Amino acid sequence: MTKFKRGVNVLVSCRCCGLQTHASIDGNRDINLCRVCYESAGAANAHSDGDHTPSECARVGCPVARGVACMHESRAPGLK
User: Which pTM does this prediction carry?
Assistant: First the structure.
């Protein structure tokens, strides 16, 4: 029988878009971000740090290249 650590498999609202998600992603506990917002934050951070060039923005899903704060904003209408 698998035992879950408290807080690891808890469903929460994403603090960016409101979508129901797990409290932890990739071993990072209590970040409360869905996968799209988590990846978007990483890409935006890499952009501001100069870790990818403007020509690489589309490949890495950079929200800065699309002119949005987070990639969840570019989802289909009606979705958060």
Answer: 0.70
